[in-house]
Amino acid sequence: MTVTTAAASPALLHGVGDRALTWLDNHREHFRLTPEDRATGKGVIERLKPIGELAINMRVLFREGVAGSRQHTRAGHLLDFAWRELLDGGNVLAALQHEEPFSPVPLEIYSAFHELGFRHPGLESAVEAGRRTLTWSAVEVLPNRRLGVINSERQTGLVPSEDFDGALSRTWLGRLPEPWTVQYHIAYDITHTVFHLTNWGEKPDGIPPDIASYLALYLPAWIEDWADLEHWDLLGELLVVDTCLPRPVLDAEIWERYAAAQCDSGAMPLHHGMPDGDAAEVFDIVHHPTMVAAFASAMAVSRAMSTAR
């Protein structure tokens, strides 16, 4: 494992996010559901999830207060576009909730918009009808995903349908297992558990002390491993986890490698370099790592500024 003491410069950290946000804005139309999506319902949930992720990113950027005026305005326009045009003012989510009354997906997407002041009473009524059933909490989802559902309930002012600590105890990270078993899918379980514990970085003290100590011990090695594998999407999520710890590392060498992987356009490759294909196909592959880059940048700049005070 490479050991360094230098911290990444705020300019480098900010540049990653600024370029990523620019690319997302320039490619906003690719978030839109196609007529075929709406007509057949095929892949609707998969097409909606990126819109929820986009809203989460904009919420993080507004919350951390590290965006310049141009970036802040761009983020606001993107958020408004997502709500009014992509989701038809929330009607798309309400329709999905009526079609699949026990699905938590509409609520998970809506919660990020709700925290930013957007409202859809019809969707809220439909969600509440589903929550009154035993099926709502009986639907089987991954343990870290259950944390996300509980958080979404909290964010929209609902009483959580399950005990948060009990759900945490069933996650991989909650059990503090042997660290060398961090394979691809487990690593994503770890990062999302941290995101839900901290409300996407808002409350770092939401990580229990034993889990924070565990992560502080092993996270640097995981970051180094995934950087060596040039898996930029997962590396970006692990860099966010670093910013959620009591003493973030913000390693300059790792961040320089991460920034160097980003294309001039602002897109962040998923793995190795940019893929080939038409614009829509490339978007489907790289929109997530690019949103992760914007997320990681906002969190890193905020922590760097806090540390410098």
Automatic annotation (TrEMBL):
Residues 18-298 form the DUF6895 domain. It comes from Streptomyces enissocaesilis. InterPro entries: DUF6895. This is DUF6895 domain-containing protein. It comes from the Bacteria.
